[in-house]
Amino acid sequence: MSSVIERIQTEVESHPVVLFMKGTAQFPMCGFSSRAVQALKAAGATALHTVNVLEDPEIRANLPRYSNWPTFPQLFIHGELIGGCDITLELYESGELARMISETQSQ
């Protein structure tokens, strides 16, 4: 199991914005993942890295343990769990998501 946790940690640490989701940014496989991708794109995320948990059962099974968050999608910015779809949408509507995204792209 530790190798899966290490893989998750590598994904989170290697990219400023990571969305663990069902499907891909181009072809989301659930409504929550789709809405999260739309909010991120609308907030200006050009370097959005996604991980399709449907293609990797080990990550799908272990990510909730790693993040202590039970559902998908899961958004990480600068290595920190931001939350799922609802939180991502709330941050987008408040303008906070755009600020967080712009900080990742200016570094």
TrEMBL record:
Any one GO MF annotation of this record: disulfide oxidoreductase activity
Tree of life domain: Bacteria
CDD domains named among the record's database cross-references: GRX_PICOT_like
Gene3D superfamilies (alphabetical): Glutaredoxin
Keywords in alphabetical order: 2Fe-2S, Iron, Iron-sulfur, Metal-binding, Redox-active center
Binding-site positions, glutathione: 22, 60, 72, 85-86
Binding site for [2Fe-2S] cluster: 30
Domain Glutaredoxin: 17-82
Protein name, per record: Glutaredoxin
Source species of the chain: Lysobacter enzymogenes
Lineage, opening ranks: Bacteria, Pseudomonadati, Pseudomonadota, Gammaproteobacteria, Lysobacterales
UniProt gene name: grxD
